[in-house]
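Self-study notes.
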Amino acid sequence: MIGYNLTYIQEKDVNGLYSFKLDPDIGDIVLFGDSKPANELSYYSRQLIAREIELEKVRRSEAYFMEQAPKDFFGRTVAQATKKGLSTGASSKTVQSEIWFKFNEGYCNAVRKTIKMKDLVIK
């Protein structure tokens, strides 16, 4: 449906009920006289199709903008900046040391108080 630029739009009819209509309405062209369509989708099916069409349009527009090279105010393409600090010949090495740290997830609401050994020794 996207290839033919067809979508469902929600309209409110005279009675106050909402319905999804095909936009552009090709039913006038396809149907002859007073004939009715053989199979008509339910309201929820049309709603789902309309939602998926809109999501696909958004995905395609995002992909289009991601492919574009960044440009400045005047429309000139901007060169990508290289990372500073690392030269092309240098490689990043992991530093080996005797100090290690392990992060334990969680939350502790304990009150910490410094105490001395003389407070622990029984007199």
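Second protein, same conventions, sequence then structure:
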Amino acid sequence: MGEFSTLLQQGNGWFFIPSAILLGILHGLEPGHSKTMMVAFIIAIKGTVKQAVMLGL
């Protein structure tokens, strides 16, 4: 962890945060993350787009 904090202090770590977010989004799109169950739940309760977005967060 010390090396990462050194990179951040030097200003060279700016690339890591957006990269981590992008990789997390891509990982969430992979199979096995209960997307079908979440969609079924939203349909079953006649949920709104806002509720679907909040569930996805």
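Instructor comment on the second fold: The mean pLDDT is 84.
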